[in-house]
Amino acid sequence: MKQRNFLKLISLALLTMFTFVSCSKGAREITQAFLKTAEIKSYTFDSSAKIHLEFPGELVGLEDSFPLDLNLTSTGAYNLNKDKLPTKLVNINFDVMDLKFDTEYYIEPSKDKELSLEYYFKMPKFIKPALGLGSKKEEYLKFSLYELLSEISDGPLQRNLYEQVLKNQETVIQMNKQVFDILLSLGSDDSLKDIITDKGYQELKRRNGNMFAETYEINLDNQNYKKLLKSIVSNDEAMKNILELSKNSASQTDEIDVTSILRELTANKEMLLSQIDNLPNIFGEKGLSFTFSIHNGYIVYQKYAFDINVENLINLQAEVETSYYDINRPVKIDRPEIDDNYVDKNSLLSKFNNDTDEMKEELSEIENSYNYFESEIVRLETSGRSIEGEASDYFYPQEKSIYHFTDEYGNVAYSLEFENFTDDKTQVKYSYPNIDYSAVYSMKNNTVKLVYVDEYTELTDLTSEENFLGDPMISGPLKEGNYWINSNNSTTFISSIDIEVSTPSGTYKAIEVINFFDNDNYQKCYYAKGVGLVKTITNYYTENNLVNSTVVLSKIEK
User: Fold this and answer.
1) Which residues fall within 8 angstroms of residue 248, CB to CB, at 6 or more apart?
2) Residue 126 CB: number of other CB atoms within 10 A?
3) Binning pLDDT at 50, 70 and 90, where does residue 141 land?
4) Which of 32, 341, 513, 521 has a Cα at 20 to 30 A from 531?
């Protein structure tokens, strides 16, 4: 059986799971409330979300896991016109990793005869300079729904699919009816009865006083998730309905043959069931929970809580709450001042294309000047020598000392004072003529790199801190031709393992590590075993003038 088809089945089961997972009285009530809520012509709302995302640090060059926290609140209003096209205004307040900003987006039916929606996104102030936009008349980014869907679609956008998305209320109604059919087909499975809980009438805090609403809670953990998948795989009607649901939302380039896939799934049912038992756990301790509060047949409050924890990949915890008000009452939406105050998507892309063409020319020139260093790497990869040892053997020893560096004329360049140590971290104080700062280096996995840098803080142990996504300074194996690509797209490689380097502090046998952008812009660093960096040669062009500087270790003060 094709693995792709089984993965599709799992994905579609997740779609069903995220909607409702039992055909109890509660599931019927929720489904019917969704159908009725999808027919609302107008409403206002407020919403909040707290999201914590954590993924392995090696994905972004960190030793430890990398966390991302997002908090946002939003308010908005929604109206449908006689053609069932929406007008919507949403104000949003973001707090992302202590970066706070406000924005809004506005949707309205196109003024052209063509059935379409126009989107206006208010660009935060810090984004405009990055896009090369400084004019006050370019506060909003404009695009049409059809253009957006056409560009993100895998193939030509089906007109009927577009019209379904355009009239999203009808799409929601249709999808919920199909999900309801799936629930009906699972209704006899007693193993799913404990997933949904009727919490009875509960008091809700509202803008203008409190109200009571019938409340249901759906909870899903790893065990119930596998139960659900087994129930779907064991039920031909449920699988057929899920495939039909997928077919209705598929693009032309991904058409689904329901009959043949269903035949294949049925023929391999036992194998599928055994695979489900072996699926890894994807939920954390809290699993997934969904809360719906229903008043007069409408969902007036909903809350989604996620705890997804896939080992060595992602840890996601999120809570999203939304309350709905003024349902089917007159709602006034004030149109923002967007006329002559926006840049459309095509103009912005045209600007980027021009910039890209210029960038391609520059990159082409750079690539042409890579020949020497790149050919050297290729040569050394096949014929280069190697030595035993770790990268940390050629970094600074973990002992209290001060290293003094001077330029080729004997002038003071900077000094390093080694302050704190752990088994795999070294903290140093850099002292330049005009500034002091602290740095922490990591020596793990046969790699040495900078992981923390900030203004100097006297007598503070910073070895547990990390705030910098440093590229490797030295990385094993210690072999000529060993290379790595840095975050700025430059390349670093080990060019020699036993080059002799003379400095005022002594003569050393060192490894030579070259970081190059092209033949004219590079830096050569020389590291001696048990000593660390003993010499640096920097070569670069500035305003068409060649600058070449050499810094050497002049004295070690114990």
Assistant:
1) 174, 178
2) 9
3) confident
4) 521
Those residues whose C-beta lies under 8 Å from the C-beta of residue 142, and which sit 6 or more positions away, are 118, 119, 120, 121, 338, 342, 343, 344, 345
79 with 42: CB under 8 angstroms? yes
Q: CA geometry: angle at 174 spanning 168 and 179, to 5°? A: 120
Strand order across the 483-485 sheet: 472-475, 447-455, 436-444, 425-431, 412-421, 402-407, 545-557, 532-542, 521-528, 506-518, 491-503, 483-485
Q: Which amino acid is at 272?
A: L
DSSP conformational letter for 471: P
| Rounded-to-integer distance, Cα 134 and Cα 10, Å | 47
With tokens 């009725």, the residue in question is: 36
Tokens of residue 512, six digits: 């030579």
CB–CB of 322/77 below 8 Å? Answer: no
- pLDDT, tens digit, for every residue of 496-541? 999 999 999 999 999 999 998 877 789 999 999 999 999 999 988 7
What percent of the chain lies above the pLDDT cut of 70? 75
Q: What is the pLDDT of residues 396-425, one digit of tens each?
A: 998 999 999 999 889 999 999 999 999 999
Q: With 0-12 CB in 10 A as exposed, 13-18 as middle and 19+ as buried, what is 337?
A: exposed
